[in-house]
Amino acid sequence: MIPTSSFSLPNGLRFIHHRDDTTAMIALNTLYNVGARDEASDLTGVAHLFEHLMFGGSVNIPDFDGSIERAGGWSNAWTNNDFTNFYDVVPAVNAETAFWLESDRMLGLAFAEKNLEVQRQVVIEEFKQVCLNKPYGDLGHQLRKLLYTVHPYRYPTIGADISHLEKVTMKDVEDFYYHHYAPNNAVIAVAGAISLEECKELAQKWFGDIPTRAIKTRLYSAEPPILAPRRQELERNVPQTTILIAFPMGAYHDPDYVASDIITDVLANGRSARFYKRLVLGSDLFTEVDASILGSEEPGYLLVSAKLRSNDRSAIQKAEDAIWSELDRLVSEGATSYELTRAVNRFESNHTFGALNFLAKAQALASCCVHEEDINEIVGRYRAVTPEQLQKVASHLLRRQSSVTLIYHSTDTSAS
Question: Tag placement on the chain: N or C end, fewer CB within 10 Å?
């Protein structure tokens, strides 16, 4: 049980607080409801670029990192298609420093051409390192292009192309900031050695006067359903041929979301899961087979991925048949009560131990706040899933006619 308290400021900024006296530190986690889905289609990668720009100085604080380090703390951030998240960790005696720093960059950034150019080059180099110069680096780009035709999920967070990052202007940056970075478009979680009374006092002192802003309306279209299988085969200089099979699935608040998540655990979570026992150990086709979900705010996908032992093209059909055999078995037979209990137990264990640390609690609480859910009720949602429900969701989800397959051929024949 994680005791929490919530409150809001008149400007719309929501706070969730958890006192943790097992530490002498506090974590302040600010989650903005903006991500790559909010970008223009010809300026992809801006949300991630903006994450970097947020460390370049604000109106009253030219050196964010130096200020938090002098307080004995540290900070970091991440961006995905749906959200941008910033977190600060400081000694509890310096909690006010974290509130001061985050409030100032929510109030206004010090927009500077030099900072934009520096961070632009940093992000471009990251794009090259992660997507162009790394084996399997463009898998995400290729898969998303197959899955999505109109929705902004069709490009990854890092951006669709370097040219988009190269042409970002200061006006683009300012527009993005003032349309999305606002108290009425954010939640803040505070966890650690700080009382609710002090948290409220600091929240009002530092965030209370920040004005609300008009948040840009999301005008993009919903992705149309996939009515026939999609398939693409590519050749790349990678060590192993890889098979990706994706299935469109519901968003986070979809009634079948939890069952879809459990399906991937039944298939692939641990050495007792079906894929490991029957495909990795039970055949000579694979070195690994995995399953996961995107876990997105809008309809995403369930992904099955596999790396083959042989790069010979004759192995691909056998491998696909083996994967589909396991998927069809789950659809036709369902999961056993033991498999379902095991999967939920593993989820509960990961959920519980993953939230022991005060920083992990702050991030989990921010996510729960933006989803308007109680962190203490999440495991119960998983416990409520029945074998019958799991089989019903599997039969609707794991269908050939709505599948998207990407074959990533290795040009290395020495493994054949």
Answer: N
